[in-house]
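Q: My labmate handed me this sequence with no annotations at all. I'd like to see what the chain might look like in three dimensions before we decide whether it's worth expressing. Could you predict it?
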Amino acid sequence: MFEIRLIKNDASKAYNITPLISSVSWDSNLSLRSVIEFSIIWNDTVHFPANPIELGDLVVILKEGVEVNRGIVVNENLSGRGNISYTAYDYAWYLGKSKSVYQFNLSAKQAVERVLNDFGMPIGNILTMSTKINKVYIQQSPAEIIKDIIKQFERETGNKVLTELREGKIYIENMMDMIVIGTFKISENVQQYNILSNPLGAERTRNIEDMRNRIKIILTEQDNFETIALEQDTVNASRYGLLEETFKIDAEDSAKARQVAKILLKRLNKIHETNSITLMGDVKFKAGRLFDVVEPLTGMQGRYMITECKHEVNQGQHIMNLTLTLPEDVI
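A: Here is what I predict for the chain of 331 residues:
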């Protein structure tokens, strides 16, 4: 069973507002921010319970006593005597609303920790990222800065990183460790089933528009450039046509150019997919996690990254809509 709790922004009181909730949904994507949307039953009759929700309050979603998501209420929408709808964002919302200036000559992990500490974001765990960050960021949001730092680490190492919030703390971890298997129950007193045994809908799109079978790494100085690494799949190029991408690299990273070219070719040199699937809900599913899919109608088969995940609970029924992409398609 789901429970929705409200904690006042001064922490003076807490309420179980589950009986007031008519519907609730929460979603996540590959940005740091996740969103909770919910509406409460309300009218102005004399004996109807007072609405305790105010902007700035904290909303926490729990399932069987375990926290699923939390967010700060930032929007309220009233329309006559109808239900009142609210939008809440997790703490990473603050990282996207500010602008700052940073100059780094640190490892990627140290740079991320510095930004998070400056903005008071509690840290759960950050994996070791030794990539050197030597860059100036001007008038960019903390969220944009952290995203760029992680991208530099991923391109240098070929490792994919998962960034998400859990119980109000940020975790930056190896994506390959975050593979989810989903289950559901029709009712509390029956056995669990694998969510793929009962898909509610699926759609698959494949394309070669974003395929790149030749990668050039160039070093630029003033108005001149030099190609310092080139990787190509000649077999693929003869089959689909030559599709080239060029990336710039800083002089201090030029020794890694060939390695970077190999990593980028591996990621880009393939048919790309964007798929969607609707399933019975499981709270373990979030954007950035990996999911092994076998779906016979569309032919989806393999390990996919969840790039968007929306959960909906309405009248006790929990379903989720997933957008799935091959992990190599996200760079």
